[in-house]
User: What shape does this take?
Amino acid sequence: MRIRIRAATLMASAALLVAGAAPALARGDGAARFYVGAAKADVTPGSLADFYLGGYGVGPVHLATAVLRHIYFRVIAIRDRDGNQVVIGALDSQGYSIAYQQGPYGFRDVEDYIQAHLGIPADHIILQATHTHNGPDEIGIWGGVPNSYFAFVTAQMESAIEQAVAREQPALLKVATADMAGFSGTFGQGPANSNTGDLTDYPIDQQLRVLQALTPRRHRVIATLLNYSSHATVYGPLNKVSPDWPGAAATYLEGDELDTNPGARYGYPGSIAIVTVGAVGHTWPAGVPSGEAAPAIVSPKTDDNYPADEFGNAVAARAIAALSGSGAFYLRQSRVDGTESTVHIVNNNPVLLAADAEPSNPTPLGGYKIDRADTPPWAFGDVYVSKVTTLRVGEIPFFGVPGEPYPSIKFTLDQQVHAPVQFMLGLAQDQLGYVEEPADYNGAFQCSTTDEWFFTISPIFGAQVADLSRENAAALGFRVTGSALSAWAPGQVPPATNCTEQQIEGQGTNGLPVG
Assistant: This one.
């Protein structure tokens, strides 16, 4: 009964917001005018022949045998009064590369297409993967996907972006945040078996961020962009295509869940929800906290997708509550912009270097090769080249990181780049494994060799990203203070020895390396 009452309260609050019942907040007095469009494209594979899923284990151990839930590419396009545009898209995938050996299928290929056909600069676009570990292996080291699927996904992404831009209409942009303490944690157990891990030694980003576009007069929701830092690993390997919790959060926000009571009112029907992941390094779902107002789900708990529905729906409910709360605010500057910097990362990981250089011989990855482009301009021998892209929407920065950023990078930017809220988009433009500052790498090297260290190509990658993100923010007009050197601090040398129990045993989730 308590859960039903709290869920009803959340839905009622959202309905009051849309109806304009909270006068000052709902009117958006003084809010800037933008132009916003959104779209989504189904990227569910039509055939599962030779179709592998990525994220658990090593090599071709995760062959897809069924489709549990459809997967999508969702995108939002935002234009200011001067005609400047930015685009943010999220693809249900374990990870996606900036460019590929197989052909023009990379994120940068899509961005170049949009620049050529719509005139939106490539550095004004951030495309990211949601990092679902039951999503397509578009990295290659878990078995990969057929070239025909790459071509299909590329065409779907390009089409969806074109649709989003074509649908742009006048809009106000609202921003809100929520505290997500208890939803996610680190490896192992925390106090009272909470699954939140050792948050003292491994602090995580527990802030949910949400940007919502509404029509100026009737406040109809056009699109909602949710940003939350947690791996999409609510369940382990299912061998079934699924978007994990980001998909469940998106469909709940869109009012289109499969497993809710008939006639239930929730979310924003007719809108598009772009669910993005943030600083996911060393951060995994811990479950829905006790007493949390998770929406009622009618499917049995034995249903494979029940855990993702429960967690994702609860995350979406927190976003809805935040948007209707007193802390939500409208952006007041009709300004969008973007810039990017080039990052050169020396691959210091012998395992991943072998996977890139030995496509057909027995390697530590079972002979399977990274599909990412391995020639100039994206690679020079053992040096990877990628992009660190930053966008500005009103008063808010959006930091793209070409891998799985550790929370330390988010904390560094929070302290040094001055803005009301900062969105961090992990696995953006590229998927180059964990992105750690040196202090994080020291801990991973001792405590998590089967996971974080295994999927880290350089101990200074995170410091490089923090530096370039600071420079990007300054170029976009944000006030930047502090020293760039702070991100390079080595932390405790040797690293702290109080690793959580699961790490000491050398195990990742389900006893397998995860990425």
